[in-house]
TrEMBL record:
Stretches assigned to the UDP-glucose/GDP-mannose dehydrogenase C-terminal domain: 313-415
Top EC class of this enzyme: oxidoreductase
EC number(s) reported in the record: 1.1.1.22
Positions bound to NAD(+): 30, 35, 86, 121, 263, 327
InterPro entries reported in the protein's UniProt record: 6-PGluconate_DH-like_C_sf (IPR008927), NAD(P)-bd_dom_sf (IPR036291), UDP-Glc/GDP-Man (IPR017476), UDP-Glc/GDP-Man_DH_C (IPR014027), UDP-Glc/GDP-Man_DH_C_sf (IPR036220), UDP-Glc/GDP-Man_DH_dimer (IPR014026), UDP-Glc/GDP-Man_DH_N (IPR001732), UDPglc_DH_bac (IPR028357)
Pathway terms, separated by semicolons: Nucleotide-sugar biosynthesis; UDP-alpha-D-glucuronate biosynthesis; UDP-alpha-D-glucuronate from UDP-alpha-D-glucose: step 1/1
Organism classification: Bacteria, Bacillati, Bacillota, Bacilli, Bacillales
Active site: 260
Range of residues in the leader sequence: none
Coiled-coil segments: none
Protein name stated in the entry: UDP-glucose 6-dehydrogenase
Length: 432
């Protein structure tokens, strides 16, 4: 099929590349000339495992094209995916500016009937708004249908998730649009759920809100475990074996970050407010997460009382491993709080350093490797569980630091690994 994908952020680009990989003719459109120039050269502007190889392969096969020109991008395409960002607005609601712009550009350039498919995460009712906005601006002989096809990709494993996800959701109030999308998606060989437009939009928000709830719940249990002498790893393991609970997303840590959970939980609350419905559960999910993001600093202060002038090594800056994304990363809040208290922060991240510099500028020192960060440090904080960081043996902390005191925000080490290593080790929800 001939497909256009609007927006080449991580959702749009991964969608476009993977649709090309299963045999479609895909044109990705973006208004950012610089980005399109980079993409045309077969280079990916984002760090996403496996994406560059797949992109280059499909450019060579002439399945995948890039343009900044809507007229060129939409010509002959019956399927048009919208995958632009829906960032958080000032009041917590989703900002639909890019959706508006994409809709206006589609309306101005579309010359044939088409199905518009929204990939972007949008409040319930937005797809009807998009349809109305585009249709009312088109000439009478062109008809569009609208469908919602939310994505459930995790950054860092987005390509893998596209081919190995748990389900594909397609929502539309047009049966023929559902049928076309079912056929297009059949080649991913995943379970397909066909539903109505509004339910599809809601499935996305409800899924992210539920996962965020699961994380705040387990983090709250971890904090309680610490006070009661229990071990959250053992508790999660025992809980997760109950199929009704499930074992994934039960790793306690320093809270969720990234571009999705923080924004989507706030957007759900905002949508609730619009219809006069309070959501105290989700409000508290967010509150618990805010507290969790700086919990390591509380632990440091409890242990040291004063950290002025101390060298603190921060290992990991990205909001999670395998991504260079720093959006709402707990590391931002942790380092800022450490700096406020007068500490000298030396941070290392395998790939997120450049993005971190945009946010934390020269307030901290960026180490070129783990050794440089740890060298002579008084305190070490583990904030992102990159394999490279997980694999540092405790003996290395002993080798490089003065008197190693480690605060592990991701429970990277088994408690038994402390035996024989002369280090002080604090983690989340486990005995010291
Ligand atoms: C999340 C969802 O998992 C995807 O299904 C969804 O498509 C995406 O948002 C989106 O809406 O675009 P993502 O934000 O990339 O994906 O990352 P996750 O792997 O879900 O991790 C989110 C946060 O939870 C990270 O900060 C991570 O460190 C934290 N986390 C995750 C934990 O603290 N413990 C866990 O057990 C799992």
């Amino acid at each position: 099929m001939n497909i256009a994908v609007i927006g080449t952020g991580y959702v749009g680009l991964v969608t476009g590349v993977c649709l090309a990989e299963i045999g479609n003719q895909v044109t990705c459109i973006d208004i950012d000339h610089e980005k399109i120039a980079i993409l045309k050269e077969g280079k990916s502007p984002i760090y996403e495992k496996g994406l560059t190889d797949l992109m280059q392969k499909n450019i060579e096969k002439e399945n995948l094209h890039f343009t900044t020109d809507y007229n060129e991008g939409l010509a002959d395409n019956q399927l048009i995916y919208i995958a632009v960002g829906t960032p958080q607005g000032e009041d917590g609601s989703a900002d639909l500016t890019f959706i508006d712009k994409a809709s206006e550009s589609i309306a101005a350039a579309l010359k044939q009937d088409a199905i518009i498919v929204t990939k972007s995460t949008v409040p319930v009712g937005t797809n009807e708004y998009i349809k109305e906005k585009i249709q009312s601006a088109l000439s009478e002989n062109i008809t569009i249908q609208i469908a919602s096809n939310p994505e459930f990709l995790r950054q860092g494993s987005a390509v893998y998730d596209t081919f190995n996800g748990d389900r594909i959701i397609i929502g539309s109030d047009d049966q023929s649009a559902l049928d076309v999308l079912e056929e297009v998606n059949a080649d991913f060989h995943l379970p397909i759920v066909k539903t109505d437009l509004r339910s599809a939009e809601m499935i996305k928000y409800a899924s992210n809100a539920f996962l965020a709830t699961k994380l705040s719940f387990i983090n709250e249990m971890a904090n309680l475990c610490e006070r009661l002498g229990a071990n959250i790893d053992n508790v999660s393991n025992g809980m997760g074996m109950d199929k009704r609970i499930g074992s994934s997303f039960l790793n306690a840590g320093i809270g969720y970050g990234g571009s999705c959970f923080p924004k989507d939980t706030r957007a759900v609350i905002s949508v609730g407010k619009d219809v006069g419905y309070d959501m105290p559960l989700l409000e508290n999910v967010i509150g618990v997460n805010e507290r969790q993001k700086v919990i390591l600093v509380d632990k440091v202060m409890e242990r040291f009382q004063e950290i002025k002038g101390k060298k603190v090594a921060v290992l990991g800056l990205a909001f999670k491993p395998n991504t260079d994304d720093m959006r709402e990363a707990p590391s931002i809040f942790v380092t800022e709080s450490l700096l406020d208290k007068g500490a000298a922060v030396h941070a290392y991240d395998p790939v997120a350093t450049e993005n971190a510099k945009q946010i934390l500028s020269d307030k901290i020192t960026y180490a070129a490797n783990v050794k440089e960060a740890l060298d002579g440090a008084d305190i070490a904080l583990i904030l992102t569980e990159w394999n490279e960081i997980r694999e540092i043996p405790l003996s290395d902390y002993k080798k490089y630091m003065n008197h190693p005191v480690i605060f592990d925000g991701r429970n990277c080490f088994d408690l038994d690994e402390r035996i024989g290593n002369d280090v002080e080790y604090h983690s989340i929800g486990r005995p010291v």
